[in-house]
Recover the amino acids of this structure.
């Protein structure tokens, strides 16, 4: 985004949402471990947001952190085979929950499972999934309506339930029921809280086969999630769910030798789809509500877009292309708060990163958290500026500089699903409600496995009456001279 664009659209005073304190002084490895065990993102210093590559050795282990588009291409594309394996920290923290599920597996298991799981959630199915997303979003509007004007809600929890309901109905074809949904959400939240993100056996580079001690809290949380998923799978086998459920593919899949997946493999992949598909989008929506609540300019532009495109209707798939600014809000939220902020890999063969040697056993961290706020790449890197994702205002960023869904062979297969879902849900709810942060609430980042706002994210909801369709264009032109509104209005006019 050029200085001219920033001045033309009045973006310099945009809201700066919170991020962990950035030290300017050198930090000892011990200090980093202490900070990282509470919040993984607290270990980065101011300088790291410009530095292209950080190399650090600790007890015989070498760590390379990559914060440069060229390094992303090298790591996740050109040398994807050598850097395919997830880092020991990721494996040891997620394996109790996901087993050998796609998200943590590698080699032959990963290749076979990817062929089975990716088509289940792929963008090609979005035509079938979108009407369900719209239905659930409309139900949430009714629920918020019932909660009453001015009601206080934990928006992070609300979004967890909403996205769990969507993943359940789209993929599992069943209405999970509130009780089960809440148990999964609570189970995963408890799992995140209890897990030792930086476990000492891993930091000391001790072998994988040494058993890691799990706290009773971690095991209880895991068991809670497993119980609900097992129950869904049992109901599925008993024919007690929608026959058309796409999860059927897991039961019908055959490996290269013609064998079906084991019961455990089916459960692991079902949990991967549920967790990968619900937690990430829930965090994105929660951050989006928060950032919008702090940005009057963004609120005005969203309202104008809703009134112009929707006029009170529940958004559908055909509206998504016209909800240009809403989608930009989602993308900007994903830039500032990528739900998977660090992509960890362990090198299994020799390679290079930005001209430096990488040896087998070295750890690589491709860091969307640093890359998507890199001062050399982004103007106003810490500001919430959706306009940078509006095609008629700014050029799209380099595709290796903005990677909330990763990149290369392990790219998120649910990307289209997630972007469609987030756009529909955000538009459906914000069209009818203004959301305001509870007075005095300090929101912070919380990053153990995924990046989420601290909970509860208490916000009050206030009804608004959308104008009839088309009315928004006039509202937008009222701010035309100084804002992105004119451009957006032109886009909508030409789209209609
Ligand atoms: C805003 C929402 C989402 C974000 C930001 C996101 C991000 C990611 C990222 C970064 C990865 C790769 C991690 C790595 O390489 O270390 C990933 C993998 C994955 N995601 Fe998503 N995701 C989202 C939503 C979804 C949804 C809705 C689904 C399914 C419906 C899904 C299914 C998966 C699966 C199955 C994998 C594992 C892929 C593999 O390892 O081959 N994700 N996601």
């Amino acid at each position: 985004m050029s200085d001219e664009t920033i001045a033309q659209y009045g973006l310099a005073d945009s809201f700066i949402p919170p991020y962990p304190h950035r030290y300017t002084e050198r930090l000892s490895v011990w200090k980093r471990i202490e900070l990282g065990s509470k919040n993984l993102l607290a270990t980065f210093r101011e300088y790291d947001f410009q530095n292209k590559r950080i190399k650090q050795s600790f007890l015989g282990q070498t760590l390379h952190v990559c914060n440069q588009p060229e390094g992303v291409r090298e790591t996740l594309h050109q040398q994807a085979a050598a850097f395919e394996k997830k880092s020991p920290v990721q494996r040891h923290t997620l394996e109790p929950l996901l087993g050998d599920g796609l998200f943590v597996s590698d080699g032959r298991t990963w290749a076979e499972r990817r062929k089975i799981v990716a088509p289940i959630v792929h963008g090609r199915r979005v035509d079938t999934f979108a009407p369900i997303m719209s239905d659930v979003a409309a139900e949430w509007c009714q629920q918020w309506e019932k909660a009453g004007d001015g009601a206080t809600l934990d928006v992070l929890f609300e979004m967890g339930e909403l996205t769990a309901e969507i993943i359940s109905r789209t993929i599992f074809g069943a209405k999970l029921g509130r009780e089960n949904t809440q148990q999964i959400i609570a189970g995963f939240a408890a799992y995140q809280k209890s897990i030792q993100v930086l476990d000492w056996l891993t930091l000391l580079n001790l072998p994988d086969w040494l058993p890691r001690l799990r706290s009773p809290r971690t095991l209880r949380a895991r068991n809670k999630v497993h119980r609900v998923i097992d129950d869904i799978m049992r109901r599925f086998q008993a024919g007690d769910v929608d026959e058309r459920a796409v999860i059927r593919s897991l039961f019908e899949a055959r490996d290269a030798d013609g064998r079906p997946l084991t019961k455990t493999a089916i459960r692991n992949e079902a949990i991967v789809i549920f967790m990968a598909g619900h937690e990430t989008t829930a965090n994105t929506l929660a951050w989006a509500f928060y950032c919008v609540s702090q940005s009057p300019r963004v609120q005005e532009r969203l309202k104008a877009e809703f009134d112009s495109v929707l006029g009170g209707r529940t958004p559908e798939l055909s509206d998504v292309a016209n909800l240009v600014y809403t989608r930009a809000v989602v993308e900007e939220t994903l830039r500032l708060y990528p739900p998977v902020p660090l992509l960890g890999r362990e090198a299994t063969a020799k390679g290079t990163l930005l001209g430096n040697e990488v040896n087998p056993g070295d750890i690589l961290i491709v860091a969307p958290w640093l890359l998507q706020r890199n001062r050399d790449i982004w103007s106003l890197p810490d500001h919430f500026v959706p306009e940078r994702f509006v095609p008629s205002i700014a050029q799209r960023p380099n595709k290796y500089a903005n990677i909330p869904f990763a990149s290369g062979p392990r790219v998120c297969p649910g990307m289209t699903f997630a972007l469609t879902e987030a756009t529909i849900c955000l538009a459906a709810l914000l069209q009818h409600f203004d959301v305001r942060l509870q007075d005095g609430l300090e929101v912070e980042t919380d990053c153990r496995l995924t990046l989420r706002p601290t909970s509860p994210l208490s916000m009050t909801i206030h009804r608004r009456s959308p104008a009839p369709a088309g009315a928004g264009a006039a509202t937008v032109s009222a701010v035309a001279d100084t804002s992105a509104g004119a451009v957006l209005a032109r886009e909508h006019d030409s789209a209609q």
About this structure: The pocket of protoporphyrin IX containing FE is lined by residues 102-103, 114, 117, 121, 272-273, 276-277, 280-281, 284, 334, 339-340, 343, 404-406, 410, 412-414, 417-418 (CB under 6 Å).
